[in-house]
């Protein structure tokens, strides 16, 4: 029987209250699955890919930490008055997808891209859609898929 998955939750803190709610949902979903996690924070969504890259590359040099089986990227981008939103949203998604494909990672994408705080809360709230839980579920499903292909999840 395979060891329970161990995940990295990386949370963009730019909208702290929304990020915390996404993490609550992800953590509950991971616990429900009998898995474990470690939680890390970065300033904003643009930094999410770098944090995961740091983790992946650190395993090349340091084996004192348990390797992550999967990654859950959480955060929130709310459109403002400039095109900054579009740039950060696109680069965050591109950076995460590049990591998934380059390193064969199981990743759950829980970065909200919304027009306002009301839309963000509708997607983050534990009482509503909680995209953090959905991202954790997606990550766990991808870990299982990797195991079916006998790909190294560590």
TrEMBL record:
Keywords: Riboflavin biosynthesis, Transferase. 5-amino-6-(D-ribitylamino)uracil binds at residues 14, 45-47, 76-78, 109. GO terms for biological process: riboflavin biosynthetic process. The active site is at 84 (proton donor). The keyword Transferase applies. Its EC number is 2.5.1.78. InterPro entries: LS (IPR034964), LS/RS (IPR002180), LS/RS_sf (IPR036467). Catalyzes the formation of 6,7-dimethyl-8-ribityllumazine by condensation of 5-amino-6-(D-ribitylamino)uracil with 3,4-dihydroxy-2-butanone 4-phosphate. This is the penultimate step in the biosynthesis of riboflavin. It comes from Nitrospirillum iridis. CDD domains: Lumazine_synthase-I. GO terms for molecular function: 6,7-dimethyl-8-ribityllumazine synthase activity. It catalyses: (2S)-2-hydroxy-3-oxobutyl phosphate + 5-amino-6-(D-ribitylamino)uracil = 6,7-dimethyl-8-(1-D-ribityl)lumazine + phosphate + 2 H2O + H(+). It comes from the Bacteria. Gene3D superfamilies: Lumazine/riboflavin synthase. Pathway: Cofactor biosynthesis; riboflavin biosynthesis; riboflavin from 2-hydroxy-3-oxobutyl phosphate and 5-amino-6-(D-ribitylamino)uracil: step 1/2. The keyword tRNA processing does not apply. GO terms for cellular component: cytosol; riboflavin synthase complex. Belongs to the DMRL synthase family. (2S)-2-hydroxy-3-oxobutyl phosphate binds at residues 81-82, 123. This is 6,7-dimethyl-8-ribityllumazine synthase. It is an enzyme of class 2 (transferase).
């Amino acid at each position: 029987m395979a060891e329970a998955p161990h995940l990295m939750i990386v949370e963009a803190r730019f909208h702290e209250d929304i990020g915390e709610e996404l993490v609550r949902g992800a953590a509950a979903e991971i616990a429900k699955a009998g898995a474990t996690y470690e939680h890390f924070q970065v300033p904003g969504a643009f930094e999410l890919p770098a944090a995961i890259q740091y983790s992946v590359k650190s395993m090349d040099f340091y084996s004192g930490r348990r390797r992550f089986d999967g990654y859950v990227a959480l955060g929130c981008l709310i459109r403002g008055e400039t095109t900054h939103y579009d740039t950060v949203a696109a680069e965050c998604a591109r950076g995460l997808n590049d990591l998934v494909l380059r390193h064969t990672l199981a990743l759950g994408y829980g970065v909200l891209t919304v027009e306002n705080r009301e839309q963000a809360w509708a997607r983050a709230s534990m009482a509503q859609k909680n995209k953090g839980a959905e991202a954790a579920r997606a990550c766990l499903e991808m870990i299982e898929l990797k195991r079916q292909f006998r790909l190294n999840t560590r």
